[in-house]
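re the bet — no i am not wrong, look at it urself. input seq straight from the record:
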Amino acid sequence: MKQKQSGDHYVYGNHAVEELLKDDSKVNKIEKIYVDEKKHRQFGALLNLARSKKIAVQYVPAVKLDKLFKNKNHQGIGASVMPVTYHSLEEVLSKGTVNLILFLDRITDVRNFGSIARSAYAMGADALLVPAKDSASINADAVKTSAGALLKIPVCRESNMLNALNILKEKGFHIVACHEKTARLIQEVDFNHPTVIILGSEHNGILKEYLKVCDAEAKIPMSKNFDSLNVSVSAGILLYEILRQRTKNQISL
């Protein structure tokens, strides 16, 4: 069952709007495009694409864009979109082959959330799994940081994350927690099978109850004795290692 996402329903920034327009499966979510009346010429190709897809375009003063997008760096263009929907885990698993899910434990920073979604979508992850509470929302900041990926990759929101983990484990998923307080390195883990990756917040880490059901724990190797990487950077490195292993062994993501 899908649930509507509360909050603002805007996408802003040239790249995020362009990615949404080019995705035929998501373009129907765009309600209207707003463009700075003094900068519209620089978006000519983008606006022509919008009109070709029967999407309304409105020229507005820069001050209106500032108000709509809360003085964020909108670059002179943005769009109102239909509310983003969350998916249930059951729904995602029922849609066919699922080989990689990112389990985000209490990641509340919207930019980290957006960056992780961008890397996850680019590297072929099938879904993000987040808690119903203590998680970043899918708002305009998150969507912009994700370059539109949050409007493409399914985001599952579950009230009982431990139960979700156990369901995935029963279905044959290998559960791997990524954190710095372990000795095993990510390249020593075999990712050539359906996998759930657990990433925790930079401040709180990963809950112990989740670690107890893991099949493996691993960390990213670093040449310096440094505390930790930003969680979105860690996600990108980890996703690349998974892609590297699976490409080498010709296993589809």
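see?? The longest helix spans residues 231-248. told u. also Residues 145 and 187 are 28 Å apart (CA to CA). so pay up
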